[in-house]
TrEMBL record:
Locations listed in the record: Secreted
Coiled-coil portions: 70-97
Gene assigned in the entry: Olfml1
Organism: Pelecanoides urinatrix (Common diving petrel)
Keyword Coiled coil found: yes
Pfam families hit by this protein: OLF
GO biological process: signal transduction
A GO-annotated cellular component: extracellular space
Olfactomedin-like domain: residues covered: 139-395
Name of the protein described by the UniProt record: OLFL1 protein
Keyword entries, A-Z: Coiled coil, Disulfide bond, Secreted, Signal
Amino acid sequence: MVVLQLRFLLVPLLTSIMGAAQYVMQDAALMNYIDRRFLSLEQRLEKCNQDILDYVEEFRDFSKMVLSRLAGLNNYKAEVKNEVENLLTRIERAQRDIDYFGSVTDSNTCIEVHEDLVKQQLFEEAEEKKKLKLMLNASCDHMLAGIKSLKIVKKTGDKHGSWMKDPGKKHAKIYLLNGSVNNVIFEFANIMTFMESNHTLKARRVTLPFPWEGTGHIIYQGFLFYHRYGSLNEIIKFNIQKRTITDQMLLPGAGRIPAYQLSPSTKIDLAIDEQGLWAIYAEPETGGNIVITKINHITMAVEHTWDTSCNSKDAEAAFIACNTLYVVYNFPSGGTSRIQCVYDVLDAVNTYEIPVLHFPKRQGSHSTIHYNPKEKQLFAWGDGSQIIYKLHTKQKV
C-alpha cells in the first residue's frame, strides 16, 4: 500500500522534473537564438558605421575636388571673358581688313581708262605720298654709309636669340630674350650688370603668358611686341612692368614663309626706327620678296604697306633706319655678312648707287639685327654672341 502511494507521488514529480528540463532546454535554445541575432545585428551596425565613415570620407574628397574645380572654373571664366573681348576686337579689325580688300578688289576691276581718271589717279598718288611724308616725318634725312666697328659685349645663350635696349625709355636697362621659342625675358639694370659672369642671378625674370616665335621681337616704350608661337601672324603687345597683355593684332599676309631664308625660325621681324614700329616679312605672292608694314604701336593698326624689291633668298636679317630698309645677306655656310639691298619708302635714296656694305672683322651669321634710333647703333645676336655695331651715316641724296 505504501509502495503504491509512493508510485503515485513519484510519477507526478518525475513528470514535473522532465517538464522543467524541457523548458530549460527550450530557454537555452531561445537564448542562443537571441544571442546569434544580436551578434548579427551588431555586425550589421558595425558595417553600417564603417560604410558611413567611408561615405563621409568620400564626400569630403569629392567636396574638395568640386571646390578646386569651381576655383579653376572662375579663373577660366575670367580667361574666356578676356579671350572673347580680344576676339571681338580682332573680328572688328578683320572686318575693316575685309572692307579694305573689297575696296581694293573693286578698284582693280578691268575698265576702260579715261584720261581724266589717269590724272585723278596721279593726283591721288601725289596726295598719298604727301600723307606718307607727313606720317613718317620727312625731316629724318640720314642714311647708312658704313659700319665703323663692332664690340662683342658678351657671349651667352643659345645660337639664336635677341637682346636690346628700349629706345623709347630714358633708362639704361638691357633685355635678353634667349632662343627662338621661349617665354622668359631677362631684364638687367644696365649693361655692366649684364656683362657680369653670373648675370642671371641679378636679372629680373618676366614670364610671358604665351611664348614667342623666332627672334624678331622688339621692346619699345615699355612694351614687348612679339610674334606669338603657334599662330600664323598674331602679334602681341605685352606690358613688361605690369606683366599683362595690352593688345593683339593679326598682320595680313604675314607668317606663311620665313622673312629670311637663312633664319627660318623668324616669320615676322619687328623693327623700331625714328618713326616707330615696323614689321618685316616675306610673301609667296611676291616671289619671296620682302614686305614692310608700318604699324601704329598705340592702336596696333596697320598704317601702310610696301612691297620691296629685296629678296629673302640668302638673307639672314634686316633692320629699318630712318624709313629705309637694309637687308643683310650671307652664305648658307656662314661668312661675312653684307648689306646689298636697300629700300627707302619715300624714294629719298638712290638705291642703285649704294655700294655693298660689309660687316667688319667677323666671320659667322646673325640671327637678329635691331637698329636703336636713340643711340644710332645696331644690337645684333651672332652665333650666341651679343654684339654692338657703330654706324657711319650721311645725308640722303
